[in-house]
């Protein structure tokens, strides 16, 4: 098995050979301090030892760089962390992962790579992403081999330090801790198709037809712009997902998602809603998330939600299953709108490097039945595409803000009111707020205008993809 992982890392090492010295020199020049000189020295020493085949020594040097850059990442506000220190962290993570992979520690290598991807900045021509993709392939081969009895499975050695702070939802308070997932994968795999998991017991609200968001089939781009985007009017569009592999040829099932993303580390929100005091975030593998929070949700003491995560940036293979809706090409201020190259309403390839691909932020929202996103607004246009399961949404236009009791301080874009069970003694004006609602089904896409308040509760196991643009 070690040889197999060495193949994944060997090609990368060759590619890095030409670039790494220059890259570290550049970092040193930009950071320009005695501390950074020592850290860059450690990176160089790590690379030297790795080339000489001394993975143990190399690992010791990278640990120095990882620990120091980790401290820098945790000083002050996340927004103020310099991109160079994030590059140092990513470079150290890459070297550490190379060493781990050469020692046959694929799971550990993947975990380190994902931390580098999540917290670091892109370095060396997306080397961490490339390495992670090739490791996923080799791990898939390994697990097939282990099923046929030719090799044993690796024991996860989850020993990295817990992260101190990370900010995934832009409106969340800074400073919440991330802890490691303590649960190891001990159970035999239960493979269930997510499409069979439509909740039969869920509390499905009756939507008042008077207040229902209108539903239309693929309106032409100029109609979308005139009727919905410019007047900031929500609408549900059907037909957008018809050309998505995630909704057709490679329908997202738990098995499929596990195969593509299983060993990857992802941030998971733990707790009923992000406004609760007990709410926190944990890093865990995608497979563990499926096992403990999707399949065993009733047994889990808390609800887990993989929410507002740039999953498609982290795992480009999943990005191939979705398309950026053509509507995201339209800019409010540009007459006539810009039309995507496809121009047929079918959508653009996500991640094709096009200008649209760069401008649109694509987030994943994957969780069990009962996840709640409290009433809040975001500053951008949003298309929320429902791929799996149903979601109940309630919307309030910006002019209702005074009736919605926003929090003060960091969460001014979030309402204090529990929309489905409002405390009208505390929030009496809320009873006057006018809402629109919809029960979003798989295949439907909800347009949420900028600053439009939205509350979202999943009815079934659900996977949505949101596209934010301006
Ligand atoms: O689906 C959810 O839980 C929330 C989605 C959301 O808030 C968004 O797309 O901005």
UniProtKB/TrEMBL annotation:
Q: Which keywords accompany this UniProt record?
A: Biological rhythms, Cell cycle, Chromatin regulator, Dioxygenase, Iron, Metal-binding, Nucleus, Oxidoreductase, Transcription, Transcription regulation
Cofactor(s) this protein cannot do without: Fe(2+)
- Enumerate the GO terms in the molecular function aspect: histone H3K36 demethylase activity; metal ion binding
**SMART domains assigned to the protein according to its UniProt record, in alphabetical order:** JmjC
One GO cellular component term of this record is: nucleus
**Coiled-coil intervals:** none
Origin superkingdom: Eukaryota
Q: Where in the cell is it found?
A: Nucleus
A Gene Ontology biological process annotation? rhythmic process
| Pfam families reported in the protein's UniProt record | ARM_KDM8_N, Cupin_8
Instruction: Give start and end of each JmjC domain.
Output: 313-470
What is this protein's name?
JmjC domain-containing protein 5
């Amino acid at each position: 098995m070690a040889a197999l992982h060495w193949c994944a890392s060997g090609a990368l090492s060759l590619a890095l050979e030409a670039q790494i010295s220059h890259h570290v020199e550049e970092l040193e020049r930009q950071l320009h301090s005695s501390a950074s000189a020592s850290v860059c020295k450690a990176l160089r020493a790590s690379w030297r030892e790795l080339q000489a085949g001394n993975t143990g020594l190399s690992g010791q040097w990278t640990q120095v760089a990882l620990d120091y850059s980790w401290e820098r990442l945790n000083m002050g506000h996340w927004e103020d962390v310099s991109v160079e220190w994030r590059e140092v962290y990513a470079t150290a993570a890459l070297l550490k992962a190379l060493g781990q992979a050469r020692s046959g520690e694929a799971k550990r290598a993947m975990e380190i790579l994902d931390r580098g991807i999540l917290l670091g900045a892109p370095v060396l021509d997306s080397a961490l992403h490339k390495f992670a993709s090739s490791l996923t392939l080799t791990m898939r081969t390994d697990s097939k081999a282990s099923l046929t009895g030719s090799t044993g499975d690796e024991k996860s050695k989850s020993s990295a330090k817990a992260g101190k702070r990370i900010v995934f939802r832009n409106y969340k308070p800074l400073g919440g801790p991330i802890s490691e997932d303590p649960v190891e994968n001990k159970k035999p795999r239960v493979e269930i198709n997510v499409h069979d998991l439509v909740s039969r017991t869920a509390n499905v609200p009756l939507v008042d037809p008077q207040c229902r968001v209108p539903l239309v089939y693929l309106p032409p781009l100029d109609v979308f712009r005139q009727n919905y985007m410019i007047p900031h009017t929500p609408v549900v569009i059907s037909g957008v997902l018809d050309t998505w592999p995630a909704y057709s040829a490679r329908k997202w099932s738990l098995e499929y998602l596990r195969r593509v993303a299983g060993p990857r580390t992802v941030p998971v929100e733990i707790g009923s809603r992000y406004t609760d005091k007990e709410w926190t975030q944990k890093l865990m593998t995608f497979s563990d998330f499926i096992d403990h929070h999707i399949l065993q949700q009733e047994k889990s003491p808390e609800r887990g939600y993989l929410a507002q995560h740039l999953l498609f940036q982290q795992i480009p293979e999943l990005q191939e299953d979705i398309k950026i809706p053509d509507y995201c090409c339209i800019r409010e201020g540009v007459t006539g709108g810009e039309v995507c190259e496809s121009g047929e309403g079918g959508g653009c390839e996500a991640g094709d490097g096009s200008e649209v691909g760069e401008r649109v932020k694509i987030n994943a929202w994957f969780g069990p039945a009962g996840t709640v996103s409290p009433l809040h607004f975001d500053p951008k246009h949003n298309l929320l595409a429902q791929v799996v399961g149903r979601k109940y949404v309630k919307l309030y236009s910006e002019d209702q803000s005074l009736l919605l009791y926003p929090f003060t301080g960091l969460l001014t874009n979030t309402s204090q009111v529990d929309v489905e069970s409002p405390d009208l003694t505390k929030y009496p004006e809320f009873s006057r707020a006018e809402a629109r609602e919809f029960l979003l089904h798989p295949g439907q896409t909800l347009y949420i205008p900028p600053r439009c308040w939205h509350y979202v509760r999943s009815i079934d196991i659900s996977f949505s993809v949101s596209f934010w643009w301006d």
